[in-house]
User: Which sequence fits this backbone?
């Protein structure tokens, strides 16, 4: 019997249980395997040891540094990055750091 293929591997960096639940609900039906880290340290370790096709990141200065580090890693240069922000004022900084997409909290099913 053939092993079930894992689709896109997503590293979700957030300690907001509501955001994690909302994002997981929409990613899993699209065959996205979501791994959750609640802090930057554990996320950095995972990035060093595993390959991810996408990163979903909570807002913070350290998270933007993580995006820049991921972009410098050969295995994550092409990863899609979604920044989860507190306000639309943070969008330009997220894109400068290397995010491909940005959502502003609260996360709603329509977004």
Assistant:
């Amino acid at each position: 019997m053939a092993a079930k293929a894992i689709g896109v591997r997503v590293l979700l960096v957030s300690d907001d249980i509501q955001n994690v639940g909302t994002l997981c609900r929409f990613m899993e039906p699209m065959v996205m395997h979501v791994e959750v880290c609640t802090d930057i340290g554990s996320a950095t370790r995972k990035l060093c040891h595993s390959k991810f096709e996408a990163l979903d990141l909570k807002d913070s200065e350290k998270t933007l540094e993580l995006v820049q580090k991921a972009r410098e890693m050969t295995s994550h240069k092409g990863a899609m990055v979604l920044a989860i922000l507190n306000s639309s004022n943070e969008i330009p900084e997220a894109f400068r750091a290397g995010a491909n997409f940005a959502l502003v909290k609260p996360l709603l099913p329509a977004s």
About this structure: The two ends are 38 Å apart (CA to CA). The chain has one domain: 8-104.
